[in-house]
Amino acid sequence: MATKAQSIEILVCDARQDPPTLQIHHLPLKGVPKPTVGWALQILGIATGQDDPGISRKGCYGVFGKRKDWSSPLYAGDRLELYAPLRIDPKLARRKKANRDKDSLLKAKARRRQAAKPRP
């Protein structure tokens, strides 16, 4: 009969600081039936609970680039990632770019109209 592993090895990528850090951690599996993302965050001392203000915002952590929930399972060899907060709202950035592109199109159209007018 095979013995169960006494620890789980995961890679933690912390992008909340600049430059991002990458560290290997061995987490003990004593009394843990199924390791989860939340359990790992607590063992590593990153969070005290699911409502911890440091990680409570949506999309603050994930595994291999995919956002995960507090109760998502964690497997040996997984890369747990801690994401930095967004500096600008993506919707706002797209809206600004669309307005800027539209303005340049309208200005070019006005210049062509002015160039096409005969001068007296």
Strands, helices and their partners?
Blueprint: E1 7-14, E2 21-28, H1 37-43, E3 61-63, E4 66-67, E5 79-82, H2 90-116
Parallel strand pairs: 1-5
Antiparallel strand pairs: 1-2, 3-4, 3-5
Question: Can you tell me about this structure?
Answer:
The protein has 120 residues and is of the alpha+beta class. The chain folds into two domains: 7-82, Ubiquitin-like (UB roll) (Roll), CATH 3.10.20; 88-120. The protein contains two helices and five strands. Strands 2-1-5-3-4 form a five-stranded mixed β-sheet, with helices on one face. A hairpin with a 2-residue loop joins strand 3 (61-63) and strand 4.
Order of helices and strands: EEHEEEH
Query: Biggest sheet, in brief?
Result: 5 strands, mixed
Strand order of the largest sheet: 2-1-5-3-4
The 3D shape can be described as: rod-shaped
